[in-house]
Amino acid sequence: MTVDIRKAGLDIGAKRIGVSVSDALGLTAQPVGVVERRSQAADVEAIMNLLAEFEIGEFVAGLPLNMDGSEGTQADAVRHFCARIEAITDIPVSFQDERLTTVESERLMIDSGMRRSKRRAKIDKTAAVLILQSHLDARAGERT
Asked: At how many degrees (to 10) do helices 40-50 and 73-89 cross?
């Protein structure tokens, strides 16, 4: 029996972390859930609980760059948290530019007619899907 190793996408915010996972072929990203932030150790544990049914080989975290491409304090916080993820799980983390993914995810939900109250609950995991899908699409382009 073969085990399908997947990638997990993370949209790491100050209050919540959106989590997504790739399909077995690494072509598409699907939402998994949202973790309400408590502490780094509790957050990593909650992420791993959400992903327990999957064999994760890599995390792809959204890196919140400034519009000019530079890194600010939020990017530093994401890198610090991801170093903790690697230390705890021994799973490597790569980064994907996440500029405007939250804006794009909200626009997609507005366009679909979703009410504001429901958007708030889904925006983080939708952003995690967009981050992971961007990563998967870039890798697919490298293979062709």
From this structure: 60
CATH homologous superfamily of 5-143 equals: YqgF/RNase H-like domain (3.30.420.140)
pTM: 0.87
Could you tell me if 8 and 59 are in contact, meaning their C-beta atoms sit under 8 angstroms apart? yes
Query: What DSSP element (H or E) covers 10?
Result: strand 5-12
| pLDDT tens sequence across 52-97 | 999 999 999 999 988 888 888 999 999 999 999 999 999 999 999 9
22 phi and psi, to 5 degrees?
A: -85, 160
Domain parsing of the chain, residue ranges: 5-143
